Amino acid sequence: MYWYCGKLIESQKLELDINDPGLIYGATVFTTLRVYDHSLDHSLTNWQAHCSRLKFSLQTFGWPEPDWHFVRHGAQILLQHFPVIRITIFPDGREWITGRLLPENLTQKQNHGIVAALTKPEFARSLPNHKTGNYLSPWLARNIVQAVKAEEAILIDSEGNWLETSTGNLWGWKDGHWWTPPLEVGILPGIERSHIIKHLQNHQITVQQEPWTPQLVKEFAAIAYTNSVVEIIPIHTVHQPTGSLEYNPKHPCFLELKGLFLP
Predict the structure, then answer these.
(1) Is residue 81 domain-shared with residue 159, that is, in the same domain?
(2) Which residues, including other chains, have CB under 8 Å from residue 39's CB and lie 6 or more apart?
(3) What are the φ and ψ backbone dihedral angles of 232, each rounded to 5 degrees?
(4) What pLDDT is recorded for position 205?
(5) What is the CATH number of the domain that holds 112?
(6) Considering only 105-109, 116-120, 146-150, which range has the smallest mean pLDDT?
(7) Which pLDDT tens digit goes with each residue over 165-174?
(8) Residue 263: pLDDT above 80?
(9) Are residues 39 and 65 in the same domain?
(10) pTM score of the predicted model
(11) Structural domain range at position 65
């Protein structure tokens, strides 16, 4: 089932005009949220932040806003069946809302970490400040690294600096505090990224926002990635052309960040 243009539809198919720019060019914006305690108003669901993300992109592109009453109503219906909701907005203001389950083995990945691999610079996302329907680059990147038994791809720039993963923002632990790439390098301003930075700064904990150079990444004791669905997942191994890097997925630094997601 899904919600489309003010209606709940029981089907696995969505009918679009063959000239729809969302179909031809991936001309949509979207956001994906995890619903906590079956409530859009739960503080961890971050409903307003997700709506603000959509509004920012719509205003930037000059697209009309949807009927937000329909958007919320559709999300309310789908959250009764799914813990993860994706809201997509077309250039003419149509809303399309789908639901899905949490990833398999999520708790295991959160506790033990995963393997990631670097990709080539050409797989960096287009319009990185926005979540658009043109997600071909990170989708390809993730599929390619799965061939080397990695579960997540790390996108890089032309100088080899690490940017973000194919689905989230990067975090590293070094010298007693957290590091994350700055938005200026061309990454998505993730909602969980903002949530974590705000929490750490409120507790007078320094967050170093600097480019992740090939040298810097060798100095981290632990690294992880975050997004609104998986929360925080440590990365214990990163495959790269010059050899693999190993990190501690059970480092004590993760305890505070994991505590941010407790209901």
Answers:
(1) no
(2) 45
(3) -135, 130
(4) 86
(5) 3.20.10.10
(6) 146-150
(7) 999 999 999 9
(8) no
(9) yes
(10) 0.95
(11) 2-100
